[in-house]
Amino acid sequence: MKRFTRTIFATAMVGTAVLAASAANADVKIGFLGGFTGPIESLVPPIFEGAKLAVSQVNEQGGILDGQKLEIVSGDSTCADATAASNAADRMVNSEKVTALVGPLCSGETIAAANNAAIPGGVVIVSPAATSPAITALDDKDLVFRTTSSDAYSGETLAKILKEKGTDNIAITYVNNDYGKGFADALEESFKELGGTVAAKEAHEDGKADYRAEIGSLASSGAEMLVVLAYVDGSGLTIVRQALEGGDFSKFAGGDGMVGDSLVANIGEGKLDGMIATRIGNATGPGTEVFSPLAKAAGLDPNANFGAQAYDAGFLIALAIEKLGKDTREGLNAALREVSSEPGEVILPGEWEKAKKLIAEGKDINYEGAAGSHEFDEAGDVPGNVIEMVVEGKGFKEVAAN
Amino acid sequence: MEDVGLLAAMPINEIVFFINKVVIAGLIIGSVYALAAVGMTLVSGILRFANFAHGDIMTLGAFVAFVLTMLMPGLGAMVGLPTAFVVMPLAMVVTAAVTIFLDKRFYAPLRTVGYKPITLVIASFGVMLMLQGVIRLFFGTAPRQMYVTAKDIYRVPFGGRDIIVTEPQLLLIVFTIVSVVALHLFLTRSRTGKAMRAMSDNADLARISGISTGHVVRTTWIIAGSLAAAAGTLLAMDVSLKPDLSFNLLLPIVAAMIVGGVGQPYGAISGGLLVGFTETLSVFNWAILLRPLKPHLPEWLEIPANLAFVPTEYKLVVPFFILVAVLIWRPHGIFKGRVL
């Protein structure tokens, strides 16, 4: 009995000590969601590293708020499984009690996590990789942001380019997922607005051996050009090849998923000359130049897919918390908008100390990130840097930045 | 005078489009169905069960041909034919041997014990899943090309548009005709062929009259396996090789077999072509043939952009409809086959 009491007493003492310590130095906690398992599992670790780099810089340069540490916890949102993504987001919002979230990454899981956990919980989420235009239309109470541009911009740009080249009547075939559908919808809308005709717009399933029936149906619409919004290593290549073989189409265009040299390598040089495509370009700006050496010094690849976007998402959230002056969820979205947009003194990647000082002085700041300047619009989207590509000889060549 | 006007309005372009998309496409897919359904119907007629592993035997045959092609890529250039086609006879032999092995291991024991045909059907499901697993284990799921070099495409100019047939398609059609004729001669002239027909008609009577059942069963598997391998290889040459290549064709093949009459090789061939043509006709966009007539039609009549019976995504329902219709109104099929 005596020993029992002593144990209780000791435990209570230790517990109190721990509590006291954590109260004095409570970490500010943010979450990271990504598909650590699932169809993009190989892409996620470098993205997470990007976000972690931002966090470690904050901690190395004086920490956040009153010298507290910024902590990042991660969860697996699986990319493809909306239920798992909702559960992971729910854990972040309600158990881990994070202040804000970086991610999720895929468009579908982002929508699920936002609707089921983040928006009800009033948590700001900044996705570094979700590109579907559907996220723009989300009823998000101004909580959902992203540091990568929407496919709507690619669709718009592609429509403009096609129209400028004198194409008036197109047929669209797209891979049946969030990427393909979003891109196709955006392209159709913009192309029609510009006065063009979309003679056919049909989805197809990825990974089939034969698309001749689909191509026949598209060709019968009488369109002069086939726009293929699919992946070059999946259905895209087969469709272009079979359409050429069957003499159904001779003019092609594509989205960023089609930009790969394997297209020309498999179909034959010269057969696709003049095929147009768009691609989301690397941002150019002061932030990008500063970021490259920073990332390399930390042992990361500065050009990793969405790595820079994840870094920006993490850094922006930290800036917003600092601006808000406290570790709460309310008001974070407004603070995020303030620190990211003009006017204000420019803050580049890695300049946490400078930013902290300026905020303390009450000055307005404007973060120019590694992946763009991040001037969020009303829907929380950033404008894209879409590049026109054209097939010439062995593969795609850049035409001009738009 | 009016005749001249109509003649000038003849939509040559659109008719060629129709030939390409319906006649040629139907002939190609119909030939694949026919080749596969012949083997399946022979097995069903003689061994009295529907072998659901037949689709994956086609895929297996195609993969055997693929491996042989990769081993001797230069072989085709010497003969002037695609390598995959040159090694196809060897692939047919290997596949036939595999089917005999599968029969020995899985079907024969069940048959000797005297289980009902439905047990064998379920066993064939097991064999099907096993084959699918083995193929994916060794080759993965990525699509592959059977062609070492670029495939030849024959274009016959016809008005403004070309009639287009590719080399594998031509080979497929020729091979189908040759094998149908050969099969006909075999079944009507040779002793084994006659024995097979006898056994298909009445197994007990055939056994009493001294026909060697083992020999007939083996021959049946050889024909079924080798034709399946040929159909799979030729199909893979035409499109591309994937582990689910022929599994997706199983339904149209079963439909072709039942439409033709189970156990009837000629029925399977006509059933295969019938299902093939129905598929291409039902997804064809008829608006394209009506569009040239637009100046002659009253103004209130708008031609819709798409006038297909079935959208292309739902092509696979067509054989289903044929199957159900035949089972309701003509359960014996065109050629009076047995009812499974």
From TrEMBL, chain A:
Pfam family, any one: Peripla_BP_6
Entry coiled-coil feature ranges: none
InterPro entries found in the cross-reference section: BCAA_transport (IPR051010), Leu-bd (IPR028081), Leu_Ile_Val-bd (IPR000709), Peripla_BP_I (IPR028082)
UniProt GO BP: amino acid transport
Record Gene3D superfamilies: 3.40.50.2300
Keyword Aminoacyl-tRNA synthetase: no
Signal peptide: 1-26
SUPFAM superfamilies: Periplasmic binding protein-like I (SSF53822)
Leucine-binding protein domain ranges (all copies): 28-340
Keywords, ordered alphabetically: Amino-acid transport, Signal, Transport
Family stated for the protein in its record: Belongs to the leucine-binding protein family.
Protein name: ABC transporter periplasmic protein
Organism: Mesorhizobium alhagi CCNWXJ12-2
From TrEMBL, chain B:
Pfam family, one: BPD_transp_2
Record keyword Transmembrane helix present: yes
Keyword Translocase: no
Keyword line: Amino-acid transport, Cell inner membrane, Cell membrane, Membrane, Transmembrane, Transmembrane helix, Transport
N-terminal signal peptide: none
GO molecular function terms noted in the UniProt entry: L-isoleucine transmembrane transporter activity; L-leucine transmembrane transporter activity; L-phenylalanine transmembrane transporter activity; L-valine transmembrane transporter activity
InterPro entries in alphabetical order: ABC_transp_permease, BCAA_transport_permease
Topology term for the membrane: Multi-pass membrane protein
One GO cellular component term noted in the UniProt record for this chain: plasma membrane
Coiled-coil ranges per UniProt: none
GO biological process: D-alanine transmembrane transport; L-alanine transport; L-isoleucine import across plasma membrane
Cellular localisation: Cell membrane
Regions crossing the membrane: 22-47, 59-78, 84-102, 114-139, 170-187, 245-262, 269-288, 308-329
UniProt record similarity statement: Belongs to the binding-protein-dependent transport system permease family. LivHM subfamily.
Record's protein name: ABC transporter permease
Source organism of this protein record: Mesorhizobium alhagi CCNWXJ12-2
